[in-house]
Specification:
- It is a single chain.
- The chain is mainly alpha-helical.
- Helix content is 74%, strand content 0%.
- The radius of gyration is 18 Å and the shape is elongated.
């Protein structure tokens, strides 16, 4: 009986995942990423004080966010139309898009592992991460008017 309930639960979960909207899902993930990065940006700019524990929490949240980005699930064929700013270049150069994300994830993991002890260390790491974001936005995102 227990195995049957587990099997039904797994099928229900898989079925609900199949109805997810990849455009909305990836937009939500990117909005979350932007909110986390915005908080770190305020520390880097001196608008908020440096708090090592809070910075670590934010960097770990950024890492968790990056690890949630399943490119195959969130950027399937056909999800390049509709309410999206994802550029066609993603589907034309999927390997390059994945490599760009892999670099971003590696840089975020490096920032977490380094555990910045002061704002200057955070600035260096955040500039690298921000550069990754900029590279992706310039190459794989349609600019908003």
């Amino acid at each position: 009986m227990r195995k049957l309930i587990l099997a039904i639960s797994m099928l229900a979960f898989a079925g609900s995942a199949a109805f997810a909207d990849p455009i909305l899902d990836r937009q939500a993930l990117m909005k979350e990423r932007g909110k986390i990065a915005g908080g770190l940006s305020k520390v880097v700019k001196g608008e908020n004080p440096f708090d090592a524990a809070a910075v670590m929490t934010s960097l770990q949240a950024l890492q968790a966010n990056a690890e949630k980005l399943d490119i195959d699930a969130l950027f399937p064929a056909g999800s390049d139309t509709g309410d999206t700013t994802a550029a066609p270049k993603i589907w034309q150069d999927m390997a390059g898009f994945k490599a760009t994300h892999d670099k971003y994830l590696a840089d975020v993991k490096a920032a977490v592992a380094a555990a910045p002890a002061d704002v200057d260390a955070l600035k260096a790491q955040f500039n690298t991460i921000g550069g990754d974001c900029g590279t992706c936005h310039e190459t794989y995102r349609i600019k908003k008017d």
